[in-house]
Write a structure and sequence with these properties.
With 139 residues, this protein is mostly helical. 53% of the residues lie in helices and 6% in strands. It is built from three helices and two strands; from the N terminus they run H-E-H-E-H.
Length: 139
Amino acid sequence: MNSFSNSVDLLHRALDVSSLRYQVTANNIANSEVPNYKRQSVNFESELKRAFESRDNAGEGFRMITTDPRHISSEMPRDWRSVEPRRVTDWTTVSKANGNNVDAEQEAMNIVQIQMQYRLLTQLESFEFSQVNTAMKKI
């Protein structure tokens, strides 16, 4: 796959993750006064990094050949397109007497950060397509 389609696909997935983060953060704010509610976050980047590292290290590692389905197989390189964002619930902290751990001010700051990241990602995607448009005009 060429770098343009990889870039656009990765930007598209990042936009989807930003949208999910926005929904999760808005849900945290909506439930900031609900007793025993635990804040949630979205984990995506760390799993994506592991997938890229497994791809980059695929040729360097030791590979075991399996001749039977019961054999232990080597870890195959993970395709980064198969990485899905996942919601993570913070069960370890309690910041309020009612058992709720949502800080509404921090969540509001997260909303602003997510909006800025989303805007940046849309600008990056627009730039990718403008490069193709420029290249097509020169032909």
